[in-house]
Design goal:
Radius of gyration: 27 Å
Number of helices: 4
Number of strands: 0
Shape: rod-shaped
Structural class: mainly alpha
């Protein structure tokens, strides 16, 4: 099971528990890119500390994959733009010289 899902289940099971509150603050800090006091992680049990680190790692990977998807979308748009431009160039016939007699 992914760490993000484990953290969600832990928070849902007991949202007022100190571990759930710490993980919630961590997730909010990651999402909003605001500071998070690392000493809060040291107060967690070792298993919960490992879970928090896994959440951070997954969050970073998910961000990478999101960036990759945006890059792929942009690349497709560029290629489609080239294809459209090429199609427009070939659709306009070259003017043939006219014979004057």
């Amino acid at each position: 099971m992914r760490a993000v899902k484990k953290a969600r289940k832990l928070i849902e099971a007991n949202p007022t528990h100190s571990t759930a509150e710490t993980l919630s603050r961590l997730v909010l800090a990651l999402e909003s890119r605001t500071p998070f006091q690392l000493d809060e992680l040291y107060k967690l049990s070792y298993a919960d500390f490992e879970l928090a680190l896994a959440v951070i790692a997954e969050w970073r990977l998910d961000r990478y994959y999101t960036s990759k998807a945006v890059l792929l979308d942009l690349s497709l748009q560029v290629e489609q733009g080239k294809t459209k431009a090429a199609a427009q160039d070939t659709a306009t016939p070259a003017q043939a010289p006219t014979a004057q007699g």
